[in-house]
Specification:
This protein has about 180 residues and is an all-alpha fold. Helix content is about 45%, strand content about 0%. The longest helix has 26 residues, at about 110-135. The radius of gyration is 29 Å and the shape is elongated.
């Protein structure tokens, strides 16, 4: 029985960077394509929920279970802190008919969809952070890919290359050497 001597490499900095901005952890590991896909997909889902429901979808006290998913993306925590400053001194959001209120919360299905989108974006970001956290450096699938060198093309009509065209067997000489 042999023990593996190489310890796995954990990428804590990449996982934290991925929490701050989705896809940034993969970018730090050199996976630009995957980083762009994660940034676009998770970012658009989070922004979609934010634009649909507004600042009110980030409410730690109003729906703490959903906020657990939302907080898996760092901007959600910052928006929630900002959301708390918009509430009245009593801690309640302003009434919809209050003319002095600068903040109007979303209601109904619009609010629910915003909460759902932002929470799903956070949970997808958790998967991306877990993907970054453990990358085995010995695994060839996780290494940076080097671009392939183009193969020289063969030109049968050009005799200056020093490469002679291959001789293909035809019906006349295909039976030679076969007994």
């Amino acid at each position: 029985m042999t023990a593996k001597t190489d310890s796995p490499k954990w990428h804590f900095a990449g996982a934290i960077a991925g929490w701050l901005i989705p896809g940034l952890g993969h970018l730090l590991l050199g996976q630009k394509g995957r980083a762009a896909i994660l940034f676009a997909s998770i970012g658009m889902l989070w922004l979609g929920g934010f634009f649909v429901g507004g600042v009110g979808v980030f409410d730690r006290k109003g729906h703490p279970i959903w906020f657990m998913g939302q907080m898996l993306i760092a901007p959600s925590v910052m928006v929630e802190v900002y959301h708390r400053t918009l509430k009245s001194p009593a801690g309640q959001p302003p009434r919809p008919d209050d003319p002095t209120g600068t903040y109007q919360p979303s209601y109904g299905h619009v609010h629910e969809q915003g909460v759902l989108y932002t929470s799903l974006a956070g949970m997808l970001n958790l998967l991306a952070m877990m993907d970054v956290l453990y990358r085995d450096p010995a695994d060839p699938r996780h290494r940076k890919r080097t671009p392939r060198q183009p193969q020289p093309t063969r030109d049968d009509n050009n005799t200056d290359t020093g490469v002679s065209p291959e001789i293909t067997p035809n019906a006349d000489n295909s039976s030679e050497g076969i007994a």
